[in-house]
Amino acid sequence: MSKSQVFAHRGASGSHFENTMSAFQAAAKKGADGIELDVQQTKDGQLVVIHDDNLLRLAGIDQQVDNLTAEELGQIRIGKGGSRFLFGHPIPILFDVISFCQQNGLSLNIELKETVYGKPAVIERILHYIEGVPDVHISSFDYPTLQLVRQQDPSVETALLLKKATVDWDCLPAYDVDAFHFHKRLWKEPYLTPLLESQKTLRMYGVTGKESFLSQSPQIEGWITDYPARVQRKIKGSR
């Protein structure tokens, strides 16, 4: 029986606009085991759930998130198109989403983004927010930031997001993190063997629910997907 978890990538973003309460609520309804989300910081230190550090793609406004106060950001709506699922959403506050996950028994994958990199005080606040959350891990592409997490609280699981050119594939076990998160394109040689031999928890992102390996990869402990219901159906036979 597989023990792998399905994480809704920015919520159920295949059907709802990414990183919105609507997308997180849909993920819970679609049977996701957990939520993957992104964290940025505003000018006045509020922690918000949004992927980009600039609002152009998400709101059509060429403004940096960390150049706006929480009040200013609260007046902005993100989304695209005419559907109520995809348009007109406020940017969630991190604490509110953590509370939602706790109330709904959802695991939590918090990805630290650019405006949070290298900021011990911000990391301390995030760690305070997740105190008592039973199943949470912190991920990032920025290895030094994950080391700050380790220094402040070694008990919190850390996950390094991998790219082909950003890590030393011959020395994966040496990275002081608990897990690796990687795109499905890396589930092949010359990357497959180093991943399997790393002795780290492995989670894969970019899956859609159509991949044949979903029910044949017991080494993967987490699937990060825009389509949680579809992935759950695919792996159900192995759970």
Report a brief summary of the structure.
This protein has eight helices and nine strands. It is α/β, with parallel strands linked by helices. Strands 1-2-4-5-6-7-8-9 form an eight-stranded parallel β-barrel, surrounded by four helices.
What would the keywords be for this entry?
9 strands; single chain; alpha/beta; 8 helices; 8-stranded parallel beta barrel; 239 residues
Structure description:
- The protein has an eight-stranded parallel beta barrel with strand order 1-2-4-5-6-7-8-9, surrounded by four helices.
- Helix 5 (120-129) crosses helix 6.
- The radius of gyration is 17 Å and the shape is globular.
- The chain has 239 residues and is an alpha/beta fold.
- It has helices spanning 21-29, 56-59, 70-74, 94-103, 120-129, 143-152, 192-197, 228-235; strands spanning 5-9, 34-41, 47-49, 107-112, 136-140, 157-161, 179-183, 201-207, 220-225.
Give a topology summary.
Layout: E1 5-9, H1 21-29, E2 34-41, E3 47-49, H2 56-59, H3 70-74, H4 94-103, E4 107-112, H5 120-129, E5 136-140, H6 143-152, E6 157-161, E7 179-183, H7 192-197, E8 201-207, E9 220-225, H8 228-235
Parallel strand pairs: 1-2, 1-9, 2-4, 4-5, 5-6, 6-7, 7-8, 8-9
Antiparallel strand pairs: 2-3
Helix pairs in contact: 5-6
